[in-house]
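In this section we walk through a basic example: taking a raw amino acid sequence and producing a predicted 3D structure, encoded as discrete structure tokens. The instruction is simple. Fold the sequence below.
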Amino acid sequence: MSESANGRINASANERIGESANQQINNSANGRIGEWARWARFARKVLIVLGVCLLLVMPVWAQEEGLSISVSKQFGYNMGSQIQGTFKIRVRGPEDLTAVTFLLDGEPLGEATVAPFELSFKTDEYAPGWHEVTAMGTTTGGQTLTARTLSFQFVSAEAAGEGTVKLLVPILVLAVIAIVVTGVVPMLMERRKPAAPYDPTSYTPGEPRSYGVLGGVVCPKCGRPYGMHWWGFNISLVGKYDRCPHCGKWSLVRRASREALMEAEAAEYVDHTAAVPRPALNAEEKLREQLDDSRFTDHV
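The resulting token sequence is shown next.
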């Protein structure tokens, strides 16, 4: 067999191996990009919901002539101007502020003579309806400062309960929709994928990899390592019920150590090397193989 033929055979084999490796790497990169995109969409929905909640519970601040006043919820219901429960009034002013008198509908509600100048009150102790909250402060120089008046509608506990339900239902609906769109749907799509010896979105067998922020696990069914999915079912103190992308089976898994993952990667490479089928031989390659085998045949 000539050296030219040997060179063509080796070049052909290397070309086939290189094309297969490049295809696996491209598929792996595309799979990781798609997974990060799903994460980004889910995080954006969560931030929107949190932003709405923060706007609803932020204290109301007003400032007039150097004296500012805020009303914040300690416990109860707060929906815009409608409040019910226990609330705190806090006043801020110049450094020489010495005393603050809190007023409800023009009547003294209480007084604070040390910073922080604040006072708690319960709306249930007053008649339901609109009420005005303000404060007056005195400085060491004898100056009197007046805060802007804030108006609130005190509601009953029953009305607060109904308002809470109306507030929570849309938030819960949005949360369920976000979970279904970003979690359940991808999970069902994964389940419908036919199980294959090697998942096209995975790394090349034996290749070092990153398992993401949740860490990696070793599938107890097929023994291959993979990154834990965020949409898996968390079971407290036990682990996560997750689906292996390689064999397609569900198992209860826990985060594996780096040593265990490296052992699984090495075993994965060995199994893959043994399972890779030999490429079909052409006539020239078959003749070469027969000649090589004939050198070890015993002749009688």
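Looking at the output, two observations stand out. Confidence is low (pLDDT under 50) at residues 60-64, 195-201. The chain has four helices and 14 strands. In the next section we compare this with other chains.
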